[in-house]
Amino acid sequence: RKSKNTTEPPVLPGAWPIVGHALRFVGDSCHIWNQFNDIGNEVHDLGGVATIHLGPQSFYIVTDPDDSSTILNTCLEKDDIYEFVKPFLGEGLITAKLSIWKNHRKLLNPAFNQSVLDTFMGVFNSQSRKLVRELEKEAGKGPFDQWTYTRLSVLETLGLTSLGVDLTDSNLSTQYLEAVEILFSTLIERFAKFWWHSPYTFAFSNLKRKQDGVIKILHNMSNTVIQRRKSELTGNVSSERSIIAGTKFKAFLDLVLELSAEKGAFNDREIREQVDIAIIAGHDTSANVLLFTMFLLGSYPEAQDKAFAEIQEVLGDGDRDVEKPDLSKLVYLEAVLKESMRMFTIVPVIARKLDRDVKLKNCTLSAGMSCALFLFAIHKLPMWGPDVHEFKPERWLEPGRLPDNPNAFAAFSVGRRMCIGKSYALISMKTTIAHVIRNYRINADHTKLKLKVDVMLKPADGYYISIEKRT
Ligand code: HEM
Q1: Whose CA is closest to atom 43 on ligand 1?
Q2: Which of 76, 294, 352, 460 could form a cystine bridge with 450, CB 3.0-4.6 A?
Q3: Residues 6+ apart with CB under 8 A from 406
Q4: Model pLDDT, residue 5
Q5: How far apart are CA 186 and CA 273, in angstroms?
Q6: This prediction's pTM
Q7: Residues near 111 by beta carbon (within 8 Å), at least 6 away in sequence
Q8: Is the minimum distance from the CB of 412 to ligand 1 under 6 angstroms?
Q9: Collapsed DSSP state (helix, strand, coil) of residue 368
Q10: For ligand 1, is residue 282 a contact (CB within 6 Å)?
Q11: Which element (helix H / strand E) includes 301?
Q12: First-residue to last-residue Cα distance in the chain
């Protein structure tokens, strides 16, 4: 494409005729993750912004935190690459076109208000206790994969809080979790094969047929959730939680249903899309951060001892619930979570469509182009210090240890399209870890961890830890 822009960023060396850099991505999801890392380093060496070509398509890659923040604050339109997931998520918040997103985000923000989140503390505690009970069967028995336990727990918690439905009794959740994994693997396979980027070529692939099958299972889950909640509300079974006591706020699904019934804000398809987004964005993210965090605590016994000591100091020796005032006192635990998200940025890359020319520090990006923001690479820049590759929760607490740059941490993204569930995630994760660490000593070995990117960053061979009951 011809651009009038004369200050374009450099092209990453090594492009081949016609295919450009696409051959770098030929391989499995571990290989793709390794390529992301290498490309992140190469782009950093080129000044933090560069262009890559995947067949006929070109992407800017950005690893500079200030440039990344400029883009995220200027361009709110999601890139065409998000079209891959639209058969599943439609115009839900994550994938929505800007014109739809503006209105929907404004309508849905109140469902994540602090007053709503406060009312979830009971569920966060009871679900964490349930997880602790479930884990008991693994205590003292050597390494096990904590994947199923934690993801199921987080999914059920999301059901009981934002969605207002009890999914603890159904095997729908287990089926759903398996389908999500398959969907993510099909998305990354499509990304790696640029000739399938076009919906016209993709339509003829076996991969598309496989994807359609799992999307049916995923939509079955959201339709079931909506039906259950609707019938509960009509039967007035749980009208108590429908309106959060003492506030004008409602939890997510109740708000969506109310806005639909009273203001026609969402049609049936849009209700399902919002529920799909809430489930996928709300469970897989927090569950992955929890899994990586437990893994890291198991690998760094000193950090685990410090976290345990803090939990005992704040909650006492007994077994009481984590309450709202405790959350702000669990400062080391918060540092552990942030450091875990820095080390393992589970949403490693996000992308925007540039709807205007964007002037950055050393170059200007052209309107109409795609731009991938390498959040994981920002978290590994030399500005984090010589110990950038080490797990050091202390860096979040000791003055002068963090980069001066406020854009250096972007695990929840930045700007107006950043994560709507950030506070929900932090509160629920803190509560869960506090209960788990209070009950078990974790052991793990991070040196054996092999990573892959399946849309989200994940371990290639499972999240193996072992646990011992604390006496
Ligand atoms: C530790 C956990 C989480 C992490 C690291 C995380 C990260 C992110 C990131 C990086 C984005 C931006 C995506 C993009 O620009 O393409 C995002 C968006 C979003 N997240 Fe989260 N998230 C987490 C938890 C949650 C939870 C618990 C919920 C809901 C209950 C949630 C709901 C959403 C939604 C709806 C969006 C789209 C926002 C918009 O475009 O307006 N997330 N999240």
Answers
A1: 419
A2: 460
A3: none
A4: 65
A5: 20
A6: 0.94
A7: 162, 249, 250, 251, 252, 255, 256
A8: yes
A9: coil
A10: yes
A11: helix 301-315
A12: 66
Does 75 appear as a known binding residue? no
Question: Which residue's CA is the nearest one to ligand 1's atom 9?
Answer: 412
DSSP states of 217-266: HHHHHHHHHHHHHHHHHHTTTTHHHHS-TTSS---HHHHHHHHHHHH--S
Write the burial class of residue 224 (CB in 10 Å: 0-12 exposed, 13-18 middle, 19+ buried): middle
| Nearest CA among 91, 279, 98 for reference residue 173 | 279
Ligand 1 centroid, distance to 69 Cα (angstroms): 17
Query: DSSP 3-state assignment of 442?
Result: strand
Does residue 277's CB lie within 6 angstroms of at least one atom of ligand 1? yes
Q: Is 281 in the pocket of ligand 1 (CB under 6 A)?
A: yes
Q: Say how far apart CA 467 and CA 304 lie, in whole Å.
A: 12
Please give the Cα distance from 351 to 466 (Å, whole number). Answer: 37
Domains and CATH numbers, the chain: 22-469 (1.10.630.10)
* 3-class state of residue 146 by DSSP: coil
CA nearest neighbour of 40 among 50, 30, 26, 31:
50
- Residue whose pair of structure tokens reads 């006929």 in the numeric block: 56
Whether ligand 1 lies within 6 angstroms of the CB of 304 is answered as no
CB-CB contact of 275 with 251 (8 Å): no
Q: Are strands 451-454 and 49-54 parallel, antiparallel or unpaired?
A: unpaired
- Measured by CA distance, the residue closest to atom 2 of ligand 1 is 286
What sign does the CA torsion over 98, 102, 107, 109 have? positive
- Average confidence (pLDDT) per 10 residues, the chain, 471 residues: 72 95 93 97 97 94 97 96 94 95 95 92 96 97 94 93 84 86 92 90 95 94 88 63 56 90 91 92 94 97 98 94 97 98 98 97 96 98 96 95 95 96 97 98 92 94 95 82
Helices (H), 136-205: 147-158, 172-192, 199-202
